[in-house]
Amino acid sequence: xxxxxxxxxxxxxxxxxxxxxxxxxxxxxxxxxxxxxxxxxxxxxxxxxxxxxxxxxxxxxxxxxxxxxxxxx
Length: 73
What we know:
- By secondary structure, this protein is an alpha+beta fold.
- It is 45% helix and 19% strand.
- The protein has 3 helices and 2 strands.
- The longest helix is centred in the C-terminal third of the chain and has 15 residues, at 58-72.
- The termini are close together.
């Protein structure tokens, strides 16, 4: 009853966009959430630090899942 996409890529034109388009073309109406880079250029550094900095770590994904589940109500 809901969809979350998570990717280490820009959310603009990324996996989330493709999933949203597929849902729309099939007239599937469910809450959708996206975890990914906002429109920015990421820097280099330690992997886990970058995941946290850009909101891509497990905690950020879990927070997005909770947010979208609340939208189902």
